[in-house]
Amino acid sequence: MGGEIIFQELDEKERILLLRAFDYNVDEAGFIISPSGDKLRSKENPSRFIEAKFASLVPGSLEVIDGTPSAIAEFLVRKESQKNDS
Amino acid sequence: MTHNDIEQILIIIKDLSLKDALIYLVSLGIVDFSKVGYQKIKILIQNKQNEGRYAFVPNSDEAIYLQKSFNNPCYKEISLLVPSYKYLGLIRTGFLLKDYNNKIESNIDKDKNKIRVLEIKRQILCRPGGFTLLKIAKFPSTEFFSLVLSYLHKLKINNYPEEHLEAEFNDLINSWQNSSKFVRSEDSLDNIIEFCRDKIEKGFNRFFLLGLYDKSIELIENGLKSLKEQIDKGEYETVIIKRESKDLPMIEVLIFKNLLKI
Predict the structure, then answer these.
(1) Who's near B66: CB < 8 A, 6+ residues apart?
(2) Domain boundary among B98, B113, B141
(3) Are residues B94 and B158 in the same domain?
C-alpha cells in the first residue's frame, strides 16, 4: 500500500482534482460542493462555507474539514472535550 | 483524447504515488473526470487514495482513533519487532475492528457498530488482494495475536534478523490456525498430545498452545509433561508464559526450534 497523502502537500489544482475523484466539486467562487450538491459548511463554524484553498483532510480519510487556523483550533478543542466527556 | 491515450495515462500513473499521479494529470490539463473515458482514471485515483495505510476510508473519529493507536502497547511492540512491515497501518485498522467488536459485545450501539464493521470489511475486501488484507486486519482480534508477539519477541532476543521476524509474522498471519491450538476445558489430554505429536512428526518449526482458566491450564501443563521426551528429541525449545490473574488466568506456550542455536 502506498503512503498516506498529506492534503496540504497538494497545490490547489491537484487538491480539487482529488476532491472531484470522490464526487466533490468546487463552485466558481471556490467553495466546495458535496457529492449531494450542497455547499459544504464548516463543522467548527457552521455559518462559514469551506473554500477549496483552505480545505483540509482528516489524516487517512477523505472527510473534508475547514483548514483555516481558527477552525483547526476549534476542531482540536472539540475533539479534546469529546475525549474528556467519554 | 483517444482510448489509447487514456490507456497510456493509466499505465503511467499506475505506479506513481497519489501525489505524483495528480500532478501528472493536472500537467496534462485534466481538471475533472467528466469526459468520456476518464472514469477509469477516476477509479484509479480513488483506489490510490483509499488504499492509503488503512485499506478503508475512515471517518473523522476513526481517523483520530487510528492516529492514537500509535500509542497502543501492542502496536508499539509490533512496530519494534517488524518496523519495516508494510501493513502496520492495517494492524491499526485491526485494533479499530477489535474496538468495534468489544463495543458490539458490550451492547454499545450494537446495530450501528455492526453495520460499520461490515462496511469496513467490505471496503477492505474491495482492495486488490482484499482477502489477504482482511486476514491481516482481523489478526489483532484473535487470541493468538499476543502469543505471536511473544514468539517474535523471543526470536528477537535470540538475534534473529528482522527479515526473518517479518517472514514469520507474514507466515503466521496465514497459518496461525494450523499451528495453534486453543485448549478448552472440555478438551481431553489426548487432544493436546495428538495436536503436538502431529506438529512434531510433520517437522513444524513452531507451534503454540493457548489456554484460559484453571482447567485448560492444567490440561496443557500435563500435556507438556507427557510430551517432554518428544519435544526434547525434536530439539524444540519450550517457553511457557503464565498469567496468574483471578479473573482471567492464562497460559501461552511457544514450542519452537531455535534454528540459530542448531
Answers:
(1) A60, B54, B58, B89, B92, B93, B95, B96
(2) B141
(3) no
Q: Give the closest-approach CA distance of B109 to chain A in angstroms.
A: 14
Closest to B52 in 3D by CA, of B87, B97, B96:
B87
**What residues of B are in contact with residue A58 (Cβ under 8 Å)?**
58-60, 63-64
Residues B245 and B171 occupy one common structural domain: yes
Q: Which residues pair with B206 in a beta bridge?
A: B256
Q: What ipTM was reported for this prediction?
A: 0.73
- pTM over 0.80? The answer is no
Per-residue confidence in pLDDT tens, chain B, 262 aa: 788 899 999 999 988 888 899 999 999 999 999 988 899 999 888 777 766 678 887 777 887 788 788 888 999 999 899 988 888 889 999 999 999 999 999 999 999 999 999 999 998 888 778 898 899 999 998 889 989 999 999 999 989 999 999 999 999 998 888 999 999 989 999 999 999 999 999 999 999 999 998 899 999 999 999 999 999 998 899 999 998 887 889 999 999 987 776 5
Q: Measured between beta carbons, which residues in chain B are less than 8 angstroms from residue A20?
A: 31-33, 42
Co-location of B8 and B29 in the same domain: yes
Count: domains in chain B: 3
Q: What beta strand segments (E) does chain A contain?
A: 25-26, 32-33, 55-57, 64-66
Residue B86 lies in a domain: yes
Mark whether B45 and B132 lie in a shared domain.
no
Domain-ending residue, one of B85, B114, B141:
B141
State how far the Cα of A7 lies from the Cα of A59, in Å rounded to an integer. 8
Contact A18 B23 (CB under 8 A): no
Cβ contact A79–B64 (<8 Å)? yes
